[in-house]
Amino acid sequence: MGKNELADTWHRGLSSQAWRLTRGIARACKGATFRTYGQIASIPTMEQWLEHADRQLTHQLHQGVPTSIEQLEEVIQDHREFLLNLDSHKSVAMSINVVGSHLADHSPTKTKAEAMNNRLAGINDKWDNVCEQATLWQTRLQAALLQVRQVSFRVSVFRFVSFRMESSTPP
To answer: What's the mean pLDDT in 128-139?
Structure first.
């Protein structure tokens, strides 16, 4: 399979905008491989995932932490799963940056190189924003959990003291 045929096989998985941007750049690069096209094909998916993650975290931060321990535990578990998902996207983001930078360096035109670099910068900015929001949300969840535990401890102490007072009071 020649390089042009290889490039054409990836056309089906890319949006037309992504395809126009990457096809010319990748064809101009002598080192473009099937894996290169795979990384480039994951750019739109990464952009969509980052948009979704950003919206989700923005909503959670706006909504605030739940007040009941049951809801808080559920939200903490959801965030733990989100962080695992974020971590699994890290290697993809890094690969996109390596391959995208390489293709931009070997771009046939300055315009295409700038377009690729701008797209990578957008992904990196969104990634940083999502990571910052995830850290802020985790901090808020930890503070809420600590507060709930303190309240729970105080209630336990109060019950213990009340029980001791009742048992030591003469009938």
So the answer is: 96
